[in-house]
Design goal:
Layout: H1 2-22, H2 31-48, E1 54-61, H3 64-70, H4 77-89, E2 95-98, H5 109-118, H6 127-133, H7 138-148, E3 151-158, E4 191-193, H8 197-200, E5 204-207, E6 222-224, E7 226-229, E8 232-235, H9 237-246, E9 251-255, E10 265-271, E11 274-277, E12 283-285, E13 295-299, H10 300-304, E14 318-322, E15 331-332, E16 340-341, H11 342-355, H12 365-383, H13 389-414, H14 421-431, H15 433-453, H16 459-464, H17 470-474, E17 477-488, H18 491-497, H19 500-520, E18 524-529, E19 532-537, H20 546-570, E20 578-593, E21 598-603, H21 605-620, E22 624-627, H22 628-632, E23 637-646, E24 654-662, H23 668-685, H24 689-703, H25 706-720, E25 731-732
Parallel strand pairs: 1-13, 1-14, 2-3, 2-14, 3-5, 20-22, 23-25
Antiparallel strand pairs: 3-4, 6-12, 7-8, 9-10, 10-11, 15-16, 17-19, 17-20, 18-19, 20-21, 22-24, 23-24
């Protein structure tokens, strides 16, 4: 009896925390259970989501082709005005939603100069100049275009109240007198970024911000249709677009269930004969279709060139202007794809609003989940100890499979979301409790260090950590450290030449030796960012020569890249070139993140400067750039000064260098070029333009380097346009 009693108590000890977690009105959360429920939700969604293309909604895509043809984003408003006009006049779209915000004016510098110069002058004698000076601004032209058509603007809400709001906020969804804002638990925003008043004026609009809608694992499953700002309720972009398309007013559905007649909650929105049920946060679950590109994508460039195939498919549709280009960073993690364009999330929402089809988790669902979890959990607790291994396995499987089948039936037939994890987790844990308890108790301490730091640092450093507590190693601290950033040049071009499988193989074969080099020099790999890598030296254990180690690693990485390119060429793969930035300075290091996800990493201005230096390698045509602080700590490495710059976000200038090699291993020819270039820089900073130009021209004719051409161009400019008296020789970069 005693062994059974122990198993009963362990089983109850497993069940109670799950029940407390399930009762969401209690502030008790088990992250693993929550994230498992997320995954189970995703599995059900993908398994039952509709396939095919929804013809009612078309995405006008600012894709890589559009950026290549029309120039980098943001485009000027004249181009956008043409785009809007063509969509409505040529392709006859019904409604256009803009998944973007226009918060800053688009000014033509040349026109502004002319208007300033000739302001107030009589230009009747110069008709051509008068037409130029008096022509409307790009924003005025764009505003006039927007007013002609059914366009829904986008704007952004934010919880950060440190910054002021900008732009014009459209009218709220409901009148203030309606009291809906006080009767809902919609997420409350502290500020907004709206459109210019000239563009927003009299236009429908909706927010596309997701500050309260991303689950703790970074995936968007449900979004809020309403946000609250200063006691007013505002609609999401998807809701505004659907409202504009249907031409229907939206009414709140308010439920009053308290005996004293007090308000209970905003339960739903009603419009177009449909009732959209909301949860307590005024959220709805996004009714994703079962794949990416579930809506027709049309390149914005094809619209501008009026070269769309099957143009009749756009007629009468809802068009959404957004982007799938990687460089514009509007990709969202969703249950159906890890990088879905944000505009396609909006398209899925609009399709759901038009159909009135959403999965719902009503208020009473939590009670049902608690009853089922308690009943089936107790059944397993008291039945399993009396069964043999075979029958115990069969009984547990019957409970798990039976509940799963019932759950999926309710999901498909009633659109009901009933949680799976409150039953599946205790059933599985109770079945395996002895094995799991033994595993956790006997191996947790031994593997804690390895599981915490194994992905960051090489095994030999982990061995040196023995005897130190994980807490002390993870504790946040300020230290002088060195950070390294590397990035593959023109990665987009490379990726377009290869299939996903080959690209993955190429990156694995590239990043593996790069990581080995970092580890060999005592560094820790912080993270991989696609084709980029970040590493640091000086933590979790101190490293007296961290700057030198990082620079030597960067040199070896460049050499290894050259060797890899020979191997890649034999396979018919494209050549890879990398830029590396290294900086030494004070950094915050430790376990950082949020209540939902943490990582051992470094932060601070010194880290940001390392990233900026990596970006500047392409500008200067050098493979490696290091800061002055790093160069000063590397007396055994020959350095060549490159420039003195002021990067974006910094007020003080920084001298930057490129390493040539170890002292004693660099040829006399390279030393000569280094010294001659140093003399050229001195002449340049002393305004001895001709002296600098003579030295630079000789270097360029000898080696034809991008770096020398940069200084030749600058020197020629200053010969014709002398700098001001307070010029300090520093070059300012206004971009990251």
């Amino acid at each position: 009896m005693k062994p059974k009693l122990i198993r009963y108590l362990i089983g109850i000890g497993i069940l109670i925390p799950i029940l407390l977690h399930t009762a969401d009105w209690i502030n008790f959360d088990i992250r693993a259970v929550r994230e498992l429920e997320y995954k189970l939700y995703d599995v059900r969604l993908r398994a039952t989501a509709p396939e095919g293309i929804d013809p009612r909604i078309v995405i006008i895509d600012i894709d890589d082709k559009s950026l290549a043809e029309q120039g980098q984003w943001p485009w000027n408003r004249a181009v956008l005005s043409d785009l809007v006009t063509i969509l409505f006049e040529e392709y006859k779209v019904e409604v256009l939603g803009l998944d973007m915000v226009f918060s800053e004016p688009d000014e033509d510098a040349t026109l502004r100069t002319l208007q300033s110069t000739f302001s107030g002058q009589d230009l009747n004698d110069n008709t051509a100049l008068k037409e130029i000076v008096e022509q409307p601004s790009r924003d005025q032209v764009f505003s006039q275009t927007l007013k002609k058509y059914s366009v829904v603007m986008g704007y952004v809400f934010d919880k950060d109240e440190q910054l002021p709001s900008t732009g014009l906020l459209p009218p709220p969804l409901f009148d203030l007198d309606s009291g809906v804002a006080q009767q809902s638990h919609a997420p409350e925003a502290k500020r907004y970024t709206g459109n210019l008043s000239i563009l927003q004026d009299e236009k429908a609009a909706g927010f596309f911000s997701l500050f309260n809608d991303i689950d703790s694992d970074g995936i968007i499953r449900s979004v809020s249709l309403l946000n609250k700002y200063q006691s007013e309720i505002y609609p999401a972009l998807s809701l505004s677009v659907a409202k504009e398309y249907l031409g229907m007013e939206i009414s709140p559905v308010i439920v009053d269930v308290k005996k004293d007649g007090a308000y209970a909650g905003l339960e739903a929105l009603e419009f177009g004969g449909l009732e959209i049920t909301l949860d307590r946060r005024t959220n709805i679950h996004v009714p994703y279709r079962g794949h990416r590109n579930a809506f027709r994508y049309v390149s914005a460039n094809d619209i501008l060139n009026t070269s769309v195939e099957n143009p009749s498919e756009l007629e009468g549709t809802i068009a959404l202007l957004g982007t799938s280009a990687l460089g514009l960073f509007d990709l969202r993690a969703t249950p159906i794809h890890e990088a879905l364009p944000g505009v396609e999330v909006q398209a899925n929402l609009i399709a759901g609003l038009l159909d009135g089809e959403f999965k719902i988790h009503p208020g009473w669902a939590t009670g049902v989940e608690l009853i089922l979890a308690t009943a089936l959990g107790l059944l397993l607790i008291f039945v399993l100890p009396s069964l043999s291994a075979f029958w115990m396995t069969l009984f547990a499987l019957t409970v798990i499979v039976g509940y799963t089948v019932l759950n999926v039936f309710l999901w498909k037939s009633g659109n009901l979301i009933i949680a799976l994890s409150p039953v599946l987790v205790p059933a599985f844990l109770i079945y395996l409790m002895n094995l799991i308890a033994g595993y956790l108790l006997e191996t947790r301490t031994k593997k804690q260090l390895k599981s915490t730091f194994g992905l960051y640092v090489p095994p030999e450093i982990i061995d040196n950590m023995q005897g130190q507590s994980v807490e002390s190693l993870l504790k946040s601290d300020k230290k002088i450290m060195t950070v390294l950033f590397s990035d593959v040049r023109d990665f987009t071009t490379i990726s377009e030449q290869l299939t996903p499988e080959v690209l993955s193989e190429l990156m694995n074969q590239f990043l593996t030796p790069m990581t080995e080099i970092v580890h060999r020099h005592g560094g820790a790999v912080d993270k991989y960012m696609g084709d980029a890598m970040m590493a640091f030296w000086g933590a979790p254990l101190d490293h007296s020569g961290h700057a030198k180690a990082a620079v030597l690693a960067s040199i070896e990485m460049q050499l290894a890249t050259g060797e890899l390119n020979e191997e890649f060429a034999s396979k018919g793969w494209p050549r890879i070139d990398i830029g590396i930035g290294v900086n030494t300075g004070q950094m915050n290091v430790g376990n950082m993140g949020s209540a939902f996800r943490v990582a051992y990493t470094v932060l601070g201005d010194a880290v940001n400067l390392g990233s900026r230096l990596e970006g500047l390698t392409k500008q200067y045509g050098v493979p490696i750039l290091v800061s002055e602080t790093t160069a000063d700590a590397c007396s055994e490495i020959v350095m060549s000064e490159v420039d003195q710059v002021r990067v974006k976000g910094k007020t003080l200038p920084v001298k930057i260098f490129t390493p040539i090699g170890k002292d004693g291993e660099v040829s006399s020819g390279r030393i000569h070029h280094r010294d001659q270039f140093a003399r050229a820089i001195v002449c340049y900073r002393q305004r001895n333009w001709q002296g600098a130009l003579d030295l630079l021209t000789e270097l360029y004719e000898d080696q034809s380097k991008t770096l020398y051409q940069i200084y030749i161009t600058r020197t020629n400019h200053f010969i014709n346009n002398p700098p001001p008296d307070d010029w300090d020789g520093v070059f300012d970069f206004d971009q990251k």
